[in-house]
Amino acid sequence: MQVRNEGHTVFFSGVLNEHVDLNNTEAALLAAQQSLTDKQKRVCLDLSQVSRANSSGLLQWLRLMKKIQTPLCYVRTPVWLVEQFNMIDEFFDGDVSVESIYAHFYSPENDSSETRLLTLGTDVPILENYRNYNASSEGSQLEPDFDERSYFHFISRHLYKSAPAE
User: Fold this and answer.
1) What does the alpha-carbon distance between residue 114 and residue 124 come to, in Å, rounded to a whole number?
2) Among the four 3, 60, 66, 105, which has the fewest Cβ within 10 Å?
3) Is 42 domain-assigned?
4) Which residues pair with 72 in a beta bridge?
């Protein structure tokens, strides 16, 4: 997995698996932490270019996140990671929030699919449950290609951590 710093944001690409050397990741996170200002109080993690992860890579990742104890905010979160958020509560241990996520949508008009970036608190309201929520926006020709109750479940479980970043 490749790691690149840009100020307080750390960008990742590649695959998160058992072959990943997280020493570079730890160094990048600590460097990003040093660049934090009074205005930006969290290190942002952008894993949108990480194509997949396996259980060994996720376990290493969670151990590292616990070790560094830095305020974190996931941005441009890929679908595979949102699915992990819904299964593994440890992603939210410590001072962790989520700003934006990707989600799959379907267009019945032309039988195509599209992945869209959704900002929590703007595109997706912060709710205690999504039982009656419909992610289709009025006038949009796209339908969610996911079950909102399941896909947004991590938001309900971690309401106070799903607010937009400061």
Assistant:
1) 17
2) 66
3) yes
4) 43, 96
Report the distance separating Cα 43 and Cα 33, nearest Å. Answer: 6
Please report the pLDDT score of residue 85 as a whole number: 96
The whole-model pTM stands at 0.90
Q: Is residue 166 part of a domain?
A: no
Scan for tokens 């376990």, then name that residue. Answer: 59
51 within some domain: yes
pLDDT digit string, tens, across residues 44-77: 999 999 999 999 999 999 999 999 988 999 999 9
| Contact in structure between 42 and 71 (CB atoms under 8 Å) | yes
The Cα–Cα gap between 164 and 5 comes to 22
Q: Give the DSSP letter string of 46-112.
A: EEEEEEEE-HHHHHHHHHHHHHH---EEEESB-HHHHHHHTT-GGGGSSSEEE-EEEEEEEETTTTE
At 137, the pLDDT band (50, 70, 90 cuts) reads low
Q: Does residue 44 lie within any of the structural domains?
A: yes
**What domain range includes position 32?**
2-161
Q: What is the pLDDT confidence band of residue 138, given thresholds at 50, 70 and 90?
A: low
Round to whole Å and give the CA distance between 108 and 87: 30
Residue 139 CA neighbour count, 13 Å, CB half: 0
CB atoms within 10 A of CB 144: 17
